[in-house]
Amino acid sequence: MSGLSPSERTALRRGQMGLVFQNADLLPELSVGENVAITRIFDGQPRKRALEAAELCLAEVGLASLRDQEVHKLSGGEAQRVALARSLCREEIGLMIADEPTASLDRANADMIADLLLERARSRGATVLLATHDPAVAERCDRTVQLQLVARQPTK
What kind of fold does domain 6-138 have according to CATH? Predict the structure, then answer.
């Protein structure tokens, strides 16, 4: 990536990478469905088709009934699932980076979301880079790397 120009790096991130942050970062002026559809709309897809795709993605995370909901009325777990639906809605993604995507979810929803994320990545030939503190989520991954903080002794 270091050999790419800033605009080329931006195009690569926008076109090939999906991001799911610990904070859902939903746009408050848009409905739940519009928040999911927004990346497809930015990619030039007609609004109606983007919203139809968003509805399917919301159904996958169990939130189809909230399509027209205002985002400020969502629980933390619902908002996180909407953010995941937004990322999964972009089919051309080769790398999904997810920071604690199940942290604010109950066990049943965390399992469902972890399975969905990993299954969708595998079916698309994509890679998931997932940070988690949840051993049940980590066990679902093909490969895990455990990071530990090592305290350094002060030098004299």
Answer: Rossmann fold (3.40.50)
